[in-house]
């Protein structure tokens, strides 16, 4: 969805559908890109990462795609479940550093309807 | 192995008071990051510390904010003379290595300034 003012983009899906969450990043020199899941009242939880020299990586029920040409990152969740409802953030780690300083995107609210 | 522990979970302070936020990293983790999250926004990097050293404080406000990670004990984020704009969720993350994409986040401290 389109981000207007302070409202986060939202995505509503039915249980069992596949979900695709998108993220545009700004730093073409980033080394790593990471997806985090944040449930209400909790800290972010690591989902999956991808190094900048890759374009696809798969995990359990999740796939991350990286398109460096247009600086776009996506997270695909297969067979989405109600427990997947959360805010999803992409984050990047800049190149040229020896530590994992994260720059987060604004986030997307995923709501899964049973 | 307990996760990253932050306390208190909720903290209410009057304007002008001091706020102290504590973070105990996971066992064996010597790298600590602090992030701030305003409502409906992503997390913003504040500071990166190793034991007894501040490595990167580029995200810390120049005044009133300080952080430490002593040889013994938790990392502390200290905010002096709090103002309403300091109200936010403050998250700590730890990792065993410098450039580790899988940093583990605590549950956060929600600071409310009244």
How would you describe this protein?
The complex is a heterodimer of chains A (114) and B (114). By secondary structure, chain A is mainly beta. Helices cover 0% and strands 52% of the residues of chain A. Chain A contains no helices and ten strands. Chain A has strands at 10-14, 19-24, 30-38, 45-51, 56-58, 62-67, 72-77, 86-94, 103-104, 108-113. In chain A, the strands form two sheets. In chain A, strands 1, 3, 4, 8, 9 and 10 form a six-stranded mixed beta sheet that branches. In chain A, strand 6 and strand 7 (72-77) form a beta hairpin. Chain A is globular and about 45 Å long. Chain B has strands at 5-7, 10-13, 19-24, 31-37, 43-50, 53-56, 65-68, 75-79, 88-95, 104-105, 109-113. Helices cover 0% and strands 49% of the residues of chain B. In chain B, strands 2, 4, 5, 6, 9, 10 and 11 form a seven-stranded mixed beta sheet that branches. Chain B has a four-stranded antiparallel beta sheet with strand order 1-3-8-7, with no helix packed on it. Chain B has no helices and eleven strands. Chain B is an all-beta fold and 114 residues long. The mean pLDDT of chain B is 94. Chain B is globular. Classes of the chains: A mainly beta (114), B mainly beta (114).
